[in-house]
Fold:
Amino acid sequence: MLTARMHIDCVVCPAGYLMPTLQRNQMPYGASAVSGSNADLPSTPNDLTVACALGYRFSHVARALLAATG
Structure:
């Protein structure tokens, strides 16, 4: 599925394993959390840290793309 998106010029920004937070969770494809069958479990502080780390990485990729095109 990623290959098809790359062929139409989409940029894929996986979380990767560069940040220690993402290394602990072993989730290279993105931030995710299990909230229970009724969505009644709150996000843990670790879930929120991973989401923030992915947002940080995404913002850096977006800035690099803007700098390259501008």
